[in-house]
Amino acid sequence: MKASKSFQWSDHKLAKTLMACFVSLTPPAASLADEHLLDTLQVHGFLSQALIVTDENNFFGPSSQNAGSAEFTELGVNASLRPHQNVLVAAQLLSRRAGGDTSDARPTLDYGVIDYQMISNQARTLGLQAGRFKNPFGLYNQTRDVAFTRPSILLPQSIYFDRTRALGLAADGVNVYLEERLPSGTLRVVSGVGQPQTGSLLAKQLFGDTDAHVSSSSLSAISQILYEDQNGKFLAALSAANVKLDADLAGNAADFSFQPWIASLQYNEELWSLTAEFALRKQSLEGDNLPRDLDITGHSWYVQYQRRLTPSWSWLVRYDSLVNNIDDRSGRKYEQSGFGPAHSQFADDVTFGLQWTPNARWMLAGEYHHVNGTGWLPSQDNPDASTTRQHWNMLLFQLSLRF
């Protein structure tokens, strides 16, 4: 997480006034050091508001009713400070509403780390982050909250689930990163351990059971190795995690394990980019007297083509596929067991998107989704899965600002 240079606190008139007052009240010996410290302070933020319209099912609010749902809002403020040339302190507060109650938009700590670089030279960088760090998961997870860093309004839901977003987003612990600058390109390795974020709705999303509770237990681990050639044209990454949670289902204790692997590839030319990611996800649930067993392996993949028409206009097309259980691709066994409709176990999504960025601060985006299946449909917006429809369409419009 590198702080943006788009907004320098020391360049802001109000900040200069406050700093001048502060310096005038401090002893002369400390004033130069304090002024230098404030010169490293950077603050920026973003705001996004979306309108979502669906013909069937609901996504992020009552999107299938009346004029759609405006219950997808993202507001973040980010700050970083460098107290020493090898130490960076950075944090971000995020207020995010994606359907649900207005109280869901309470500001939370999105990330907050102390970043210490033991080695930093032309050949390599070796550092450590402690605190709440964004999980190095796939190509987009670490920057997924900022609309300007996403290729579309919604990331491919088969891999970057919004319905279980808290679990994959961040962890409280430490990670170590190494960047080796090779003659042919750059190799980055990140590995961390920490407590995953759970969120109040995670049990419902994972198990489809309202009488369930999830809390993090033992430390979980995540790692990523990424290579990018020196021209930035080719990028390849492999991400893996081992997440363990404590769960309570209908009063019965259970151990939940989630082990995803993601392979990522991207090729970039001046006017277009081609991106593909494939994931294998193993889930297991162990315990006595559980209302259901869970020992499945699912897979996900997508292929995405982006085209830059002008410096301010771009479009994309994407095919995104999700299967919850490779031994029950159609979901028929799931339905026959009485757990829910078969179409809740898969989703195939064809997406067309368009973005207009007239300047560095504003962006207007729109996209259309044609979906077969409800495998990534949020259950909080659709509490009765039996009433959902297998085939549905979705339109999204989003206005974004950053400063």
Which features does this protein show?
403 residues, mainly beta, Porin, 16-stranded antiparallel β-barrel, 5 helices, 17 strands, disordered N terminus
Q: What's the structural domain tally?
A: 2
DSSP helix fraction: under 10%
Query: Sheet with the most strands?
Result: 16 strands, antiparallel, barrel
Distance between the termini: 17 Å
Under the CATH scheme, the architecture of the largest domain is: Beta Barrel
By CATH's scheme, which homologous superfamily of the largest domain applies?
Porin
- Tell me the total number of β-strands: 17
Summarize the structure.
By secondary structure, the protein is mainly beta. The chain has helices spanning 13-24, 28-39, 165-169, 202-207, 332-336; strands spanning 42-54, 69-84, 87-98, 108-120, 124-134, 170-181, 185-196, 212-216, 220-229, 234-249, 252-268, 272-287, 294-308, 313-323, 346-356, 362-373, 391-402.
Could you characterize what this model shows?
The protein has 403 residues and is mainly beta. The protein folds into 2 domains: 39 residues, no CATH class; 363 residues, Porin. Helices cover 10% and strands 53% of the residues. The chain is built from 5 helices and 17 strands. The two termini are 17 Å apart. The N terminus is likely disordered.
